[in-house]
Design brief:
There is one protein chain. This protein is an alpha/beta fold and 488 residues long. It has 2 domains: 241 residues, P-loop containing nucleotide triphosphate hydrolases (Rossmann fold), CATH 3.40.50; 209 residues, no CATH class. The protein is elongated and about 95 Å long.
Length: 488
């Protein structure tokens, strides 16, 4: 389509007709027929969420995405603009992107009536047709739909009932596009009522004046199910008017989660850096462990931002060490994941037992659990008895996360046969020292996570602490006593 500048030029090559939902449906069918990727960057939803979104768009439905925090709900809404045409025409200067052939605002109608085929035309990109609002309790009906502007009436010499005095809200300004409302339950009930007409009839009224705007919109919402009781709820008549309710979810597998984290985490620091696969899997395993841990509030969810932030922080700790010691490549170790605790503790809400332990202790347990699971995958079937025997025989080994790779390797070589197992992680003794050091440390951390060796602050890795059944029972009784005391 040529870049027509007037209505007359546009009439010679008119754009495809239809509503914005027809436009999205048409472009979606074209993408499906061509085998194109529908929503680039949205991973893990190929067989669950995306097919339901496709069905909603093909049905010309307004939709709501329900899911816990960190499940890419807002990103999905913004990616819907990929289903809009690259450019569409509108009346130049129109506040609500009037269609030159069907203007609905008085300003645009008067302009077309006065100038006819000489009416100036502007062109809108998909991004300009997307309007997003975060719902908060202080949002007013004027913010969403509009209000009468007395100052505009006075300056223009208009009566208050004139359409020219109207100040349009976000909904009218999204005309011929997508209007996205995040966290719908946070919107006051009386404001939700104001959305009834636009969902059912496609029009709104402003301030009680007999002015009806037949808006052309695709409305999309997000909500966290927990918010229904914590802060508010979606009123039933509004839910009834939303065509499709689509549930989002966290990654189903470690591989899916690691792929999302790799895509989103900022790990390209302009330096030679290598992140071992087992490190990525441990970081992702922390989120999976948190989502099933009884000490963490599952209703609140554990965002995918947790592994993203943890990986970035672990790489940063490795980067700091690399710069100080002037060694390359930058390779994060398990100790760097422990150093990233500040990026973990703010990402989950604790239950009562977790509050007693404290967020940092809970986070350490999560890291240890993740290390143990990944260790089982890589080294669970290997014979590590000579390594364990070294510590049971009185050996000890203290590693520092600030030690150079060569110093760490020298320490690891003191343990018979330990570095022979780095081959099971995909490395060899001939690889760069930072990689060998990270792999060797992982072997020790895995043995500690599975309680085959112990660790103390003073001596580092040591023989496992052997406790009698009586000692274990006494510890449980003491924990119960403390919890009872807290309750009372």
């Amino acid at each position: 389509m040529g870049q027509a500048r007037t209505l007359g030029e546009l009439k010679q090559n008119p754009p495809p007709g239809g509503s914005v939902k027809d436009e999205m449906r048409r472009n979606l069918l074209r993408k499906l027929a061509a085998g194109e990727t529908l929503f680039p960057g949205i991973l893990g939803y190929e067989e669950t969420v995306i097919p339901r979104i496709v069905n909603a768009v093909l049905s010309r439905h307004n939709m709501i995405l329900l899911g816990l925090r960190g499940q890419a709900k807002s990103r999905i809404l913004r990616s819907l603009t990929s289903l809009l045409d690259p450019l569409i025409p509108c009346v130049e200067g129109s506040e609500i992107h009037d269609d030159p052939f069907r203007p609905i605002s008085k300003q645009a109608r008067d302009l077309v009536a006065a100038r006819g085929d000489d009416t100036p035309i502007a062109w809108l990109t998909p991004e300009e047709r997307y309007v997003e609002k975060l719902a908060t309790p202080d949002v007013t009906i004027a913010d969403i739909i509009g209000d009468v502007d007395p100052i505009r009436a006075a300056r223009g010499g208009h009566v208050l009932s004139s359409e020219l005095t109207m100040h349009y809200g976000l909904l009218p300004r999204a005309h011929r596009g997508i209007f996205a409302l995040n966290e719908l339950p946070d919107l006051a009930g009386r404001i939700q009522v104001g959305l009834f007409n636009i969902l059912q009839e496609g029009d709104v009224q402003i301030k009680g004046y007999p002015i009806r705007l037949p808006l052309d919109l695709c409305l999309v919402f997000t909500a966290n199910p927990e918010d229904y009781t914590a802060r508010g709820k979606i009123i039933t008549p509004l839910k009834d008017r939303i065509g499709s309710e689509i549930r989002t979810h966290y990654p189903a597998t470690i591989e899916q989660g690691a792929a999302i984290t790799q895509q989103e985490a900022w790990t390209d620091r302009g330096m030679a850096a290598t992140i071992p696969r087992f490190v990525r899997e441990v970081v992702e395993g922390i989120a999976f462990a948190a989502r099933r841990d009884k000490k963490i509030d599952h209703r609140s969810g554990v965002s995918q931002r947790l592994p993203i932030s943890a990986l970035e922080n672990a790489v940063s700790n490795a980067e700091r060490r690399s710069v100080l010691l002037k060694e390359t490549p930058v390779v994060p170790r398990i100790s760097d994941i422990y150093a990233s605790l500040p990026s973990l503790t703010g990402k989950f809400e604790l239950e009562y037992e977790g509050e007693l332990m404290g967020p940092e202790n809970v986070a350490r347990e999560l890291v240890r659990a993740a290390v143990g699971e990944v260790f089982s995958v890589y080294l669970g079937a290997q014979d590590l008895r000579p390594v364990v025997a070294h510590f049971e025989g009185g050996g000890s080994l203290k590693l520092s996360d600030d030690a150079s790779a060569s110093e760490t390797i020298a320490q690891l070589e003191r343990v018979p046969g330990l570095l022979d197992h780095v081959r099971h992680l995909g490395f060899s003794r001939k690889d760069p020292a930072p990689l060998v050091a990270a792999a060797g440390e992982f072997v020790l951390e895995g043995l500690h996570a599975q309680k085959k060796i112990g660790r103390s602050e003073e001596r580092g890795f040591v023989a496992p602490e052997r406790r009698t059944d009586v000692e274990v029972d006494l510890e449980k009784l003491e924990r119960l006593r403390r919890m009872k005391k807290q309750v009372n």
